[in-house]
Amino acid sequence: MSKDRNIETSAITAGRPEVSPDASLNPGVELTSTFHSGGPIGYGRYGNQTWNALEAAISELEGGQTLAFSSGMAAISAVFSILPVGAPVVASNQGYSGVMTLLNSFHESGRLEVRFVDVVNTDEVIGAMKGAALIWLESPTNPCLDIADLPALISAAKKLGIGVGVDNTFATPLVQNPLAMGADIVMHSVTKFLSGHSDVLMGSLSTNDPALFKRLHESRSFNGSIPGPFEAWLALRGIRTFPLRFNKAQENAKYLVEKLSGHAKVSRVRYPGFGAVISFEVAGTAEETQKVCDSSHLIAHATSLGGVESLWERRRRWPMESATVPEQLIRLSVGCEHVDDIWSDIESALSAI
Ligand SMILES: *Cc1c(COP(=O)(O)O)cnc(C)c1O
Question: 72 CB less than 6 Å from ligand 1?
C-alpha cells in the first residue's frame, strides 16, 4: 500500500488481500456474526474483514483511519453522540436536510446548543466559534451548492482548539482532502459517489487522531450502527471505478451547465465549478417545476445522487427541506450516460411547460 499513489490507482489497488499463491484478488464477503475466541474482534458488531477492506480503501483516498457505518446519517450521528450534553456546535443554517432535521431536534431538546451560521460568510462563522466543541461543515452544501472557505475556517477553529468535521460527500477526495487541511474528521455518505450505483446505503468517518478513532469506534459498536458485510463489499466494488465515474460525470456536468445557462426556461444555474451535481431554477412556478421533473424519460425522477444514473428532483417536494431552498430549484445528479442523451431529455422535459 502506498499513500503517494494517485487516487485513480489507489481506488483500484486499496483494500486487497495479501498476495500469496492462490490468494483471492478480492476480499470475500465475511458473513458471520461471531468468531472463535482468542482474537481481537470476537463478535460481529465489533469488526469484520469485509469492513476492514472497505475502510482501508477509504483511508487511502481520504487519509487517516476509517470506520464504515450503516448510512451517512449513522456516521454523522456517531460524531454528535460523542459530544457532551449541551455542547455548543457551529453548523451551517442550510445543508443536507437529514442533518438539518437532526441538528434542529438536538437544539430544541437541549442535547446540543447549535449555532446556525451562513457558511459562505467566513467572518460570521469564525465569530460564532468561541467556546464551541465542534464545527460541522458541508462544502459544497446540499442542495444550494454554497462553498465554505474550508482552509480559513479549519485553521481558525484549530487555533481555538475546536474540533472540525467535514462532510465531503459532494466534493469527494478527488476535489478536496479535509484531513490534509487540518480537519479532525472527514465524513462520507458512501451511498453517493463512492459506491456510485444507487444500490447501497453506507457512511464513513475518517480521522488521523487515534483517541478520536477509538471513541467513534465505541460509538459504532455500542449504538450498533454497523454496515452489513455484503453492503461493504458492494461499496468497495463501487470504489474501484469511483474516479472514472466521477470524472466522466463531472465532464458531463460542465457541458450541461453551459447548456442550461443559455436556456430560456432556466432562471439560475448553481454549480461550484467541480463535481457532478447541478442545482438550477426553473423560470416558472413550483407546479411547473414539478412537471419538468415528471416529464423526463432518461433522467429518473428520484432523490439521491452520485450514481451512474442521472437523477433529478424538486427539493422542496420534501416537507423537511429548508425554506431557504427556492421552490423552483431542481437538483440534478449528473450520471455517466452520453451527455447528448441527457441534454435532449432535459430539453424535452423543459418544453413540457
Ligand atoms: C445523502 C447525504 C447524507 C446522508 O447520507 P445517507 O447515506 O443517506 O444516510 C449526508 N450528507 C450529504 C451531503 C448527503 O448528500
Answer: yes
The dihedral over CA atoms of 102, 107, 113, 116, expressed in degrees to the nearest 10, equals: 70
Q: How far is CA 337 from the centre of its chain?
A: 22
Nearest to 307 by CA among 332, 329, 336, 286: 336
| Ligand 1 atom nearest to CA at 142 | 13
The finding on whether 100 has its CB within 6 A of some atom of ligand 1 is no
Residue 3 pLDDT grade (very low, low, confident, very high; cuts 50, 70, 90): low
Q: Say yes or no: 192 and 293 in one domain.
A: no
- Please tell me the distance between residue 289's alpha carbon and the centre of ligand 1 in angstroms: 24
The mean pLDDT of the chain is 97
Q: How many helices (H) and strands (E) in the chain? A: 11, 12
Q: For the chain, what is the domain count? A: 2
pTM equals 0.97
37: in domain: yes
**Dist. CA 212 → ligand 1 center (Å):** 22
> Is residue 169 lining ligand 1, measured as CB closer than 6 Å?
yes
Atom of ligand 1 nearest to the CA of 190: 7
269 & 321 share domain: yes
Which of 138, 145, 172, 192 has most ligand 1 atoms within 8 Å of its beta carbon, as the pocket-test mutant?
192
For 323-342, what is the mean pLDDT?
Answer: 97
pLDDT band, very low/low/confident/very high, at 1 (cuts 50, 70, 90): very low
Q: Is the CB of 272 under 6 A from ligand 1?
A: no
pLDDT digits (tens, 9 = 90+) for 9-44: 999 999 999 999 999 999 999 999 999 999 999 999
Same domain assignment for residues 217 and 254: no
Q: Which amino acid belongs to residue 141?
A: T
Strand pairing class (203-207; 266-270): unpaired
Q: Are both 34 and 64 inside the same structural domain?
A: yes
